[in-house]
């Protein structure tokens, strides 16, 4: 078995069972435990698992969210491709709302300067990217800032969103599936994302393939509420068909 095949098997096992035991998997595959430890090290750097004594635990099963810097390095090439594909959905003029997230931040860096855009965001990283960008009128939503995601949340943010109607909202998610929709682990952030969905004429979800099926604590939208899902080609054809049947157009970057 090639290393890439072992990585895929270990990732699937971690997501299915919640954890991976080094000795059990080494015996099953007929390789040295050190080989499995190295494989789990690769998966940890990709943000898929967190190593613990004797094995590893799936990140989504832990009671924490990776911080922005760590999440930005996970599937970085896929996120860049998704952001570039999402550019086709940015209007030549009008208003867009950029949700907090590493992929939406990448989209912010790519926004053209020859469009007349009003950009609204609850993300400090997005605001810092766009604050001096020509051709963009920037509005940042206030509220309590979550240190993990650098996103404004709670009453101030929700109150501001309640009075908005934007042309296109670009959202991030920690998980998505046809059955459970779009999810995130923090309920305060989920409430803001739900308000973003309600405040937009068109809703676009930006999420790489690793988030498919990794359902989190709090749902902020069903897939029927999402107009377009932009993901990467790492997702399989069966999943694409299932997702499109649930509502959104699926664009593969």
From TrEMBL:
SMART domains: DeoRC, HTH_DEOR
GO MF annotation, one: DNA-binding transcription factor activity
Pfam hit, one: DeoRC
Key words, A-Z: Repressor, Transcription, Transcription regulation, Transferase
Taxonomy, superkingdom: Bacteria
Record domain HTH deoR-type: where: 3-58
InterPro entries for the chain: Carb_Metab_HTH_regulators, DeoR-like_C, DeoR_HTH, NagB/RpiA_transferase-like, WH_DNA-bd_sf
Known role: Repressor of the lactose catabolism operon. Galactose-6-phosphate is the inducer.
PANTHER family in UniProt: GLYCEROL-3-PHOSPHATE REGULON REPRESSOR, HTH-TYPE TRANSCRIPTIONAL REGULATOR SRLR-RELATED
UniProt protein name: Lactose phosphotransferase system repressor
Species lineage: Bacteria, Bacillati, Actinomycetota, Actinomycetes, Pseudonocardiales
